[in-house]
Amino acid sequence: QVILEVTGVPAGWIHLLPEAGGGPVMASSAGLSQEVAEALARYRSPECECRKTPYSHQPVVVHPFHAGCPLLALDLGANRPLTCHVTVPLLARSRVLGVLNLAGDDLALFDEQEIMLLNTLGRQLGVAIENTRLWDELKKRDALRGQMLEQAIAAQEDERRHIARELHDQAGQALTSILVWLRALEAEANGSAGVTVSPNRLQEFKAIVADTLDGVHDLALELRPSVLDDLGLVPALQRYVHTHQDRHQLAIDLQTVGLERARLLPSVETALYRIVQEALTNVVQHAGACEVSLLLEVRAGSIVAIVEDDGCGFDTGPLMRGEMDERWLGLSGMRERAELLGGRLTIESAPGTGTTVFVEVPLG
Ligand SMILES: Nc1ncnc2c1ncn2[C@@H]1O[C@H](COP(=O)(O)OP(=O)(O)OP(=O)(O)O)[C@@H](O)[C@H]1O
Ligand SMILES: [Mg+2]
What we know:
Layout: H1 2-7, E1 11-16, E2 25-30, H2 34-42, H3 53-56, E3 60-62, E4 84-92, E5 95-104, H4 112-191, H5 199-223, H6 226-230, H7 233-248, E6 251-257, H8 266-287, E7 291-299, E8 302-309, H9 317-320, H10 329-340, E9 344-349, E10 355-362
Parallel strand pairs: 6-7
Antiparallel strand pairs: 1-2, 1-5, 3-4, 4-5, 7-8, 8-10, 9-10
Helix pairs in contact: 4-5, 7-8, 8-10
This protein binds adenosine-5'-triphosphate (ATP) and magnesium ion.
């Protein structure tokens, strides 16, 4: 509206190119009838000169109109048909975000100076649109981070509850039994000089201690496998893959290239371990896969992990467009871990095609 007032042009509109791809979308219009605005939003004639602007990044003056152009139907009243229009790119950082269009009944309105002015306006509008989009993205990411923080705190509480229950139910009860046995032994020892403890009782006693040890060991392994700290990522993943495939009857093929004896930064090892752990948990929970391959490879200054399954796959569209929501916290967490280390995570999947998770993290 302001541009129309300043330039004295009777009609104008803005088409934006959606970030997710696809054709231009009508973002705003002034001086157009509703029918013409709707027709313009649908109009996709590749022969029109104005369609070149998004590729050439240059303003285009169209005169006369292409035969099918919906602008021909616009009636400005007083017998004034529109005769020409100009399309100016909305540019931000050399990218075309959309086009500003102005249409008039006098070609003299669009002289060289006017077009230079509109071109400058197009750049300013482009930067303003880019800033708004970045701001929206920032707000979305902030909200997601908040959700993830809440989720992390809830997960921490769940884990504490789980440890407390395990300690109480397993180690606590076992230690209580051992105490009872020890009291009985004490009583027997006090009762006679030559203590005799039946071999069966001793067997039982040993079994309880062994079970308790196993339980504590499993718990510690689940919390953080010491092998990750002691021996590194590859042995830790070999161990995880071994238990995971036994537990879920899944064939997992683990291959490593170029890091047989290498130790990586602890932050990189932890991040990759957790990312692969979540990817494999997702395979069990969602994919219904028979086979999984896991590749870890050192490539020019970075480490790459690829987890590929032959399961049901899923639509990754929202993820790739950055439209993350609370339903994708596992995947967001994986991506966040990779990005915190300056790396990236991509997922290739579609319903019926299996899923490939690709993570790359710089080594140094
Ligand atoms: N390997 C896979 N095969 C098929 N679908 C998958 C796979 N990985 C993820 N998905 C889909 O992506 C969605 C999001 O996964 P994500 O890990 O973010 O959440 P979740 O596993 O549902 O829950 P959470 O990880 O928080 O327990 C899943 O619900 C599932 O629909
Ligand atoms: Mg998950």
